[in-house]
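Format notes (please read before filing issues)

Several people have asked whether sequences and structure tokens are stored in separate files. They are not. Every record keeps both together, in the order shown below: the sequence lines, then the token lines. Line labels are part of the format and must not be stripped during preprocessing.
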Amino acid sequence: MANSKRQLFIKRRMRVRNKLRRTNRGRMRLSVHRSNKNIMVQLIDDVNGVTVASASTLEKDLGFVGKNNLEAATKVGTVIAERAKKAGVEEAYFDRGGFLFHGKVKALAEAAREGGLKI
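Then the structure lines:
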């Protein structure tokens, strides 16, 4: 029986997340969700089950920038790095979910690294 696209996405997301949980060494998780129009990112403390910081293109000041969503993803990555520093977080592990590491997801990760967050 063939799996649907959604089922394959969920399998890929869980495979990535489980690998990261085995090797996280107590760090926080930088979790990314991407839709066709927006990109959202959360800094999550899995030990306490708390979201420490978040950023999204749904916020008014981080919204859609022209026609290039890579610019918006870069802006969100920079903002999450700033908010993580304010919360006292220096390093986290990058949870790309079921998304491939290219395009908007890669732009967000690189901007967060340039902002000073160790991923």
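For reference, the curators noted about this record: The chain has a mean pLDDT of 89. Helices lie at 5-22, 69-86, 104-114.
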